[in-house]
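pls ignore typos typing on phone
adenosine-5'-triphosphate + seq
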Amino acid sequence: MVAAIEVRGLRKSYESLEAVRGIDLSIAAGEVFALLGPNGAGKTTTVEILEGHRVRSGGDVTVLGHDPGRHERELRERMGIVLQQTGVDEYLTVREIVTMVAGYYPRPMDPAVAIDLAGLGEQADRRVNKLSGGQKRRVDLAVALAGDPELLFLDEPTTGFDPSARRQAWETIRGLAGLGKTILLTTHFMDEAQYLANRLAIMADGVIVATGTPAELIGASSSRSTVTFGLSDGVEPPSELDARPTGVGWTIETDQPTGLLHDLTGWAIAGGHALEGLQVTRQSLEDVYLELTSAEGEADA
Ligand code: ATP
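k done
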């Protein structure tokens, strides 16, 4: 495994505030890695140190074999960065901007390809100030792709997008991963992390509280499933199943969903009861996230 990013014991203090408190990270080349965590967890601080935009207080950081703190040109040419807000010249067309930026790089991507990858093929000859907010964010992506980077930093890439623009952005990011790019993204959306990331880390209060694949994080946290269903008025499930009434039906927590479903459906069939909307759900990544980040908050309190 070739590491694109290696972080050991990274620390960052802002005067008396320790925003990042000794974190380790290893991101392989070609991986899509998501950094999650509540507001103020230290994600932006960490990512901006990796980008070379902030100075670390301690620890070792290697990005594509370089120390980003040295601001070497070769490293800059191999990275693409999409910030939450960037300023491109809005009076130029998409194609003019991307072509101009591509000119700064030794081995750029064909501007038309960068524009297509960002999903702006139809807007290529429009001025940026005539585009919608979501389309402008795609211009930022096209600009970040102009130098044909190996490594892309995406800071909350779909914040403010409508559902269909989000899906399109996800497909774009998957396409970039398919081209072998390493992608580090920050996000507040669990479904986004689950859909896009090979691995993720959850940060809280300056430390990493969990890291792994989405499946590992969900699996490690709990084997509990929740079974929910509705019954006709006046019908109650047998007491040994330990069902709790909810506003719209019944819910049962279990570590043994197979056996429980056998008992429940056996009872329903024998008695001629319909189990309306029967569902079995595992803990979601969001449940795990909330558990881990609130545990951290409680420990601090
Ligand atoms: P968000 O999800 O809100 O973007 P984040 O996880 O990216 O949060 P950071 O922006 O890294 O968090 O901030 C971590 C902590 O460091 C916060 O308490 C923040 O107030 C503080 N901080 C960040 N930048 C600075 C700065 N330039 N000067 C002083 N304190 C800062």
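The pocket of adenosine-5'-triphosphate is lined by residues 14, 17, 19, 37, 39-45 (CB under 6 Å). The chain has a mean pLDDT of 91. more later
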